[in-house]
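Researcher: I need the complex structure. Ligand is heme C. Inputs:
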Amino acid sequence: MKTNRMSFVKALLLLFFVLPGTAFASEESVKVDHAPININDNESLQRGARLFINYCLTCHSANYMRYSRLEDIGLTEAEIKDNLLFAADKPGDTMHVSMESKQAKAWFGAPPPDLTVITRSRGADWVYTYLRSFYRDDSRPTGWNNVVFDKVAMPHVLHELQGEMLPVYRNEKDEEGKDRQVIDHLALAKPGKMTPAEYDGAVADLVNYLYWMGEPSHGLRLHIGLIVVFFLAAFAVVAFYLKKEFWKDVH
Ligand code: HEC
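Model: Output:
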């Protein structure tokens, strides 16, 4: 009986601690950089929104996001109308894309997915790394490849900002002991409009915006959560004294 219970406990421990770790480990085959997210930084979010609307909405939609919601990050309705409404008529419209997904699939071989919750499915760190990992590869139809997304169908749409990166290889032994070449890092071959540090900053803004867009009520929820916890704590004190008062005569 005792051993039975022990093995049950072991199985439970395995389930909770070891298994999720292995699943995680298999996903972590590529190293990703940490994305410096700060959804309280409205200026960063606004710069990110501009980049997103200028460079991403031509192919990707954000169908669960309305332009008018950008007022939450400090933009006025007039600013949204004058500077950001290229692909829509009214601030109340969602961020849809004019290209049809069938058409896009025919052009790129893969449909560009909706990006509203991309940082929730891929993780902000992955997206931050992905947008900084494009490199020139003439064997690809678009002329571009990506370190964290091999044979990606998306071209490097930010290359005028980043410039062109080329891979630097190193030798590595595979499981059978044979030498093979793997990408060690990327090196800037042709500078773009931004320095590498400025480009990292721009991508950080963009990913910050994508992260906020995936959960625009994050800040509000946190706020409400704190109020609820505070209310419950205060109410517990009231309940305690109320109980004392009610039971006073019984004891
Ligand atoms: C020219 C069209 C085009 C533009 C512009 C574009 N993308 Fe893409 N994107 C694609 C296509 C096509 C794919 C699908 C790639 C694949 O599956 O191989 C993709 C895939 C992605 C993915 C990976 C999605 C996943 O989980 O598989 C991310 C993230 C992404 N794009 C972000 C962006 C961002 C951010 C911008 C703006 C800076 C942008 N894209 C601009 C065409 C585009």
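Model: Summary of the prediction. Strands lie at 62-66, 94-95, 134-136, 144-146, 163-173, 179-191.
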